[in-house]
Amino acid sequence: MKEKILRALRSAGGYVSGASLCEELGVSRQAVWKNITALKENGYEIESVPKKGYRLAAVPDTLYAPDILSRLPESCLCRKVECFSSIDSTNTKAKQLAELGEAEGTLVTAEKQTAGKGRRGRSWESEPGVGIWMTLLLRPSILPVKVSGLTLLAALALVRAIKDVCRLDAQIKWPNDVILAKKKICGILTEMSSEENYVHYVVVGIGINANMASFSREVEETATSIYLQTGKKINRAELAAAWIQSFCEYYGQFIKRQDLSFVTEEYNSVLANKDKEVRVYYGMAGQISLENTDVGIARGIDRDGALLVDIQGQRKRIVSGEVSVRGLHGYV
User: Fold this and answer.
1) What's the CATH code of the domain at 50?
2) Does residue 198 sit in the same domain as residue 249?
3) Residues 234-268: pLDDT tens digits?
4) Contact 140, 150 (CB under 8 A)
5) CATH of the domain at 155
6) Which pLDDT tens digit goes with each residue over 50-84?
7) Do 29 and 85 belong together in one domain?
8) Which of 131, 140, 134, 141 is nearest to 157 (CA)?
9) Which residue among 11, 55, 217, 221 has the highest number of C-beta atoms inside a 10 angstrom radius?
10) What is the pTM assigned to this prediction?
11) Phi, psi of 237 (to 5 degrees)
12) How far is 323 from 152, CA to CA, in rounded Å?
């Protein structure tokens, strides 16, 4: 009910009478009052004026399930959100829920991760209260070989969400990083449980550097945050919901078409390295060496999500997995 109350207050833009809320929600005044009291205890400033009703005056910057859900259309695939103050990894929790039969569209979020995971075995810093750490559980009707396309859609959905919420033009560093000012603000880790020709479930984990004011020396040269680029704190629930909505829209089309042909032009328009010289690194992160690399010109992705790179007069398809692509003179 808290979700519905927040949805009603936010859509009204002003005061909503208690009687209207009771009628819309089909509950008693006492039930409305009880849930509004609970929202206030969670940091939501809700004004109550006799003969006018209730008004949502301010919201806290927190990842709160009713808030996230209230920002999504009721037709959205994501209809359940589980929020944790601290957890080892949202991907790990989502996989545990999947094994227990949890429904597609369930989202797991955390204010802090103690064992966050990145692509190719890397760890992921998860400072509490300033980032967005979340994982979406999916049960797609696709072949396992198609699953990597979900990572690209997750990145593209975040570019759109950042544009809508923050009015910033982010770019993508293929396959799973979103960047601002040539620095990383997001990483994506997609994992699946499958058999040879069948996917049991997929978890799409995303970590977004939202309101960080600083980074450790190890990553400060390549990482940034939305706050550092704008000087303004964003509401994390708003950005999270914007990403979920965009991703679920892309996801629906992807399942219908079974490839990325419907977004290749859009994706390539925000690909940071398109038509630029890149170095392709083969192998796990700890095994990278210049001897095991190629240099070429990145031309964009194809309908299967492979990066097309012109290397020594030949166009090669670079498939995500044990491969990393960087700019010739730096991260991008």
Assistant:
1) 1.10.10.10
2) yes
3) 999 999 999 999 999 999 999 999 999 999 999 99
4) yes
5) 3.30.930.10
6) 888 999 999 999 999 999 999 999 999 999 999 99
7) no
8) 134
9) 55
10) 0.91
11) -65, -35
12) 15
